[in-house]
Design brief:
Layout lengths: L9 E7 L4 E6 L4 E3 L7 H4 L10 H8 L3 H10 L3
Parallel strand pairs: 1-3
Antiparallel strand pairs: 1-2
Length: 78
Amino acid sequence: MKKDIHPPYVDTVVRCACGNAIATRSTQTGIRVEECSRCHPAYTGVRRTASAEGRVERFRRRYHGSLAKDLMHKSHGD
């Protein structure tokens, strides 16, 4: 096998956007991530929803004028 073909494996710290720091070993130094096990919803059990309203309600609110009525009449064959 060839010698000296692998990058150095060093101690490093993974830093999350929430402020959590995890000590590990890697070939990279100073790793930054957006979510970790301390703040990710899958691990914390906290559910975050982007929108509570449905698609139809959002469409009706956005196009409450004649456009929505025209589209509804076309879909019913009128």
